[in-house]
């Protein structure tokens, strides 16, 4: 049932948002050199790696300049990238990952391999038992992660110490409580947060 829900709504979302994708794609391309999409490696269900789709918000080869954690004042962010990050618009292409079955609309946010390696075996077993998602409890709790990391001399360290532990706790909470009704509630709360920009 969850998979059918994901297919139906990711397809509908991609169709309805197609004009928005074109406009954002042009803005990204005109703002700086490089591809429209960022396709970074993330770890999915059962530990299978996949390429996550996002609108590019940083300068080319940003991953070689700094770590995976992004502060709101990260110098790697482009002008358009800062706006896309602020309103979470860079995440929209993940509807493609949902349609492909690599992600779900709701589930623990997919992580880079190095963060998965830091999980305990029990945490890894539970978190990787479901498809990663576009939103969940942790996403709503920490909607503007970049703002928390802003001003940090070491965003990576700040993320691991102040954000990651709570994030794991909330991801495990979602897995324990997951249901289609909960998914609908979390999607609606996420949409409200985007429009309110809280």
Main β-sheet description:
2 strands, antiparallel
Mean pLDDT: 91
The total of helices stands at: 11
Helix content: 55-70%
Low-confidence stretches: none
Counted beta strands: 4
Number of domains: 1
Q: What do these coordinates show?
A:
The chain is mainly α and 198 residues long. The protein has one domain. It is 55% helix and 10% strand. The protein has helices at residues 2-16, 18-31, 62-65, 79-86, 94-100, 113-116, 121-127, 137-141, 145-149, 155-177, 180-196; strands spanning 37-43, 49-55, 104-106, 133-135. The chain has a two-stranded antiparallel ribbon. A two-stranded parallel ribbon has the order 3-4. Helix 1 crosses helix 5. The mean pLDDT is 91.
Short description:
The chain is built from eleven helices and four strands. It has helices spanning 2-16, 18-31, 62-65, 79-86, 94-100, 113-116, 121-127, 137-141, 145-149, 155-177, 180-196, and strands spanning 37-43, 49-55, 104-106, 133-135. Helix 1 packs across helix 5 (94-100).
Give the arrangement of secondary structure elements.
Elements lengths: L1 H15 L1 H14 L5 E7 L5 E7 L6 H4 L13 H8 L7 H7 L3 E3 L6 H4 L4 H7 L5 E3 L1 H5 L3 H5 L5 H23 L2 H17 L2
Parallel strand pairs: 3-4
Antiparallel strand pairs: 1-2
Task: Name the descriptors.
single chain; 198 residues; mainly alpha; two-stranded antiparallel sheet; 11 helices; globular
